[in-house]
Amino acid sequence: MYAKLIKRNLLIYTHDKMGIFFSFLGMFISLLIYIFFLRNNLIASLSRVEHVGKFVDTWMVAGLISIVALTTTLNAFGQEMEDRRNNKLDDFSVNSGLRLSAIKWIYTLTAIIEGLVSTIIFAVICFGYLSIRYSENAFNGHFWMSILFNSLLVVFSANFFTLISSCLSTMASFSALSAIVGTLAGFLSGTYIVYDALPKFMQTVLNYWPGYEIAAITRNEMMHGISSGVPNRVLDALGVSSNIGRAMAIVTIGTIICLVINYILSRTEKK
């Protein structure tokens, strides 16, 4: 029954052609805004860095991939809100014999699948951009490590939004959440504003936010070899981190906390 309901959610997602179009359009817009409006300013500010164009392109692309990994899982919970509004959750519970709390996890699994697919597709686009621009094959081991890191972020974000969506009751509130997440994700990954330009309080928050930590190690992975001559203080200011162990610990702990809270909340739900 789990598989059938997940398949049903995925079919609804894939049949919504316009929804998919605008979802990927948002990803493209982020990349195009960087290419046409932000790239030259960043290059000018880091003009002393060797191979500055490739350095800046790789830095930004890594951040954009992590933004997509964090935000695209939210789409599945829009379907949950729609089903809740149409009283379909009760129908699913009656027909399948599953608790409403168990059905909740179906949307979490759907979110993970949709998030992974979207992240991989966007990563292919971004690495393709780097390959074309610099006439080299960017699809190497760094590509797969970047996918691995951001897959963990997808799992965290799916569980995080499971928790957040459980507090929402209307499509209006969900739409507001989507707008907020879309706006904040770039800042909380240290992409739209570099880490060093943020207030100390925000830097402290980012140091314990999985989205930023994964973005930081993704940048380090993708920029391997490019950033070898760049001073560590510059890399730190740009949110580039080689501390994979710390990032893995933060995203794992964050996921476990969300899982535990979601489980506790699910025990209070009616059958």
Automatic annotation (TrEMBL):
Q: Check the record and name the InterPro entries matching this protein.
A: ABC2_TM, Nod_factor_ABC_transporter
Cross-referenced Pfam families = ABC2_membrane
> In the UniProt record, which is one GO cellular component term?
membrane
Q: Which domain of life is it from?
A: Bacteria
Primary location group: membrane
Task: Name the Gene Ontology molecular function terms of this record.
Answer: ABC-type transporter activity
Q: How does it sit in the membrane?
A: Multi-pass membrane protein
Keyword field: Membrane, Transmembrane, Transmembrane helix
PANTHER family given for it? NODULATION PROTEIN J
Q: What protein name does the entry list?
A: ABC-2 type transporter transmembrane domain-containing protein
Origin species? Weissella viridescens (Lactobacillus viridescens)
